[in-house]
Amino acid sequence: MADHLAVTIPLDRVQRIQLYINTARKSLPEIQAETGADYILNGTLFNMSTFEPNCHLKADGNVLCRPAYSVAGYSWQTGPDISEDVLPDDAAKNYIACTPLIVSGKKVTTLTYDPGQGGKRGRSAIGMKSGRLGLYCTRDGGTMARTPEQLRDDLFSAGWSSAVMLDGGGSSQCYFAGQQIKSSRAVHDLILVYLKKEETPVDEKKAVFLDAGHDASNLANRSPDGTYYEHEFCLDMAKRIKAHLERCNVTVLETRPDGNAVSLETRCQRVNAIAGVDLFVSLHSNAAGGGGWSSARGWSAYIYAAGGERERAAKAILERVKQAGVVVRSTPIVYNSSLYVLKNTYPPAVLIEHAFHTNESDVKNLRSDAWRAAVAEAEARGILDYLGIPWLEEEAQEPQEPETPAEPTEKELAVNWAVSEGILKGNTDGDLMLQEPLTTERFIVMLYRTYKKFMS
Ligand SMILES: [Zn+2]
Questions:
Q1: What is the CATH number of domain 201-387?
Q2: Are 350 and 313 in contact (CB under 8 A)?
């Protein structure tokens, strides 16, 4: 069982968010089996002896708890419209509140919670990050137990723009698309998220956004000897990977399809404007040292932080790259929350640093057509592994079968013999013999020549 699970779900993927009121005191796995929800997280604080909620709560139009105070929480009608709100909000069909941690992009300085909620415990939270619904859960007594303040700081540094701490401690439990944090406690209410189901075969096609780093005006990112430019390599690799993925029925989109400049902001906007992108892959080569050659070399992949789909994708790509015999760094997967395109794109994002253009051996590879082809294939295979799509071999160029000459007919053998013996005059006579009906005149001439050859 996991100690810590966190997901962010694009709101356009959300079909419905339900507040499940658990009067039957069912376990979370029972609720999952009953509802088929894709994500489930324990809800707000409740009184364990009366089994009544303690904070603002409204489910499907029914107000279940309405204390005298106002507090920041989340409200929605169906689900994809969920947003921060000041509760109670009579117009909303559903809402939930507990302990606000981050409100409108700002940390709440002094948190409000009962003493019983303090200390390092299992934690659950709901929030928003870059237009996505965030769900967070850690196991009580596990390695990721946190105080409410630490939870606030963790979520803030992970880029959440708002967050509400839900009931924690022994109530912390979740089911996130197959992964679970279990607790023996039946809780009063739970947040259930249902994703949109794929509707048409066209939508089932997986989509990958490729991001060729830099552009043709960038002449700074190059090898010290000037034989290699990063922008050219990145675009070439994008085209190579694209060809493999498209052949395997993946939709490929590009942030930079040609040599022209595209800002990092525009790249992210292009990605985020398309719904249902399954993976974003940014392509680069690395650099080290102060301008000359340096010893650092090898392939590595950067992701925003540990875990989640991005790490699964990075590992799948790494596996294929290693199989292809590519030199990889000693820490081939690097967590970096400051890289712009990793921070500001909605889909799972991986940035690949293929090799160091400041290392002489690596530059030989980066310039090599064979190396590029092998690495592009490996990375495409890794992306397909991650997407769960089979690799389709390239259509082999039809080998030009050498024509096996048909056995000569007896007539042809006879003509060849007659030509070689001089009875027919060269190939012209021979060809005529094969095409034309034999005339009496030609027959008598041939007979005469045969006689002269063998009898005289
Ligand atoms: Zn770069």
A1: 3.40.630.40
A2: yes
